[in-house]
């Protein structure tokens, strides 16, 4: 018989899977499920990006690339980061098959048995699993008491972070709350990171999807350049989830270490996908602006529909999620709502914050209306 490693047996399968398995089952039985559980844009990849991918294949870009990614793409990423105020040359960048792989490699490079990692809850589901697989332990700061804002929780963060803290993960705009952390909040993070010599991952995968606010990149703050690793990717801003393309940028020493894991595991991101990535970075401003505008309209729609039902939510400034306050047993709420009304959402406990359900508004206005109406009619709002 096979014996499995602790590093995997101690990890739970994603709690979002229970809901999506049930949704799939219902759909197979012919139900019309309004799926508000998905973490991906519902738009096609911009046409010019698809064309660039096809052209790259036709041009024979189908072999291995340098492990860190083709220089042309890393140069384009370097320029994109410079626009965000970050100074990373191509030698400080690794291109990965998705931001998820980037995060995995960074955590593997930095976290060993017993190392402490601080998360801001609710936090994206995979951070916890990545830390656990690396043998690290978690300290968590709950932002739900503060409408998911970080600034009023800085004292709690100060309690959670100590000289024993190795790593802090910050995700702004946030999945699942849509919160964009203020400059004052980020400065508070900086002060603690410097005081306790903590490395910080800034997961900026939703940075391009915001509504009237400009998120600051943590690595631009004084004292943060040497201790920040910036992660970003193409899945969300360019609607490229299935292409699997992301990257991270940080101090060269980190790049050297994580680069070993990268080269011995994935080798590189897909060659022609990297070529498409250049097009995405350089020529899609209008397409991205159009998608962001649509997300903003949908956010406004859902917030006002919920308001009409007497439900107040923390209005998100970015990404395409919001947290709906539900009963304490959020897992049961989500399962019951799905079974009764065929509306799929994700329980907040999957993100470390029970009592909420995450709604993704990456769906058409018709479907959003339909979903909220069904939840209201079913007595779930
Ligand atoms: N980080 C956050 C906060 C996310 O929500 C996601 C996707 O859901 C990722 C990283 C990973 O994205 P990808 O691996 O598709 O680039």
Automatic annotation (TrEMBL):
This protein's superkingdom?
Archaea
Quaternary structure per UniProt?
Homodimer.
Q: What is this protein called?
A: Aminotransferase
Cross-referenced Pfam families, in alphabetical order? Aminotran_1_2 (PF00155)
Question: What is the species listed in this Swiss-Prot or TrEMBL entry?
Answer: Saliphagus infecundisoli
Q: Which UniProt keywords apply?
A: Aminotransferase, Pyridoxal phosphate, Transferase
Record-annotated Aminotransferase class I/classII large domain positions: 32-375
Q: Does the keyword Nucleus apply?
A: no
- Cofactor(s) the protein needs: pyridoxal 5'-phosphate
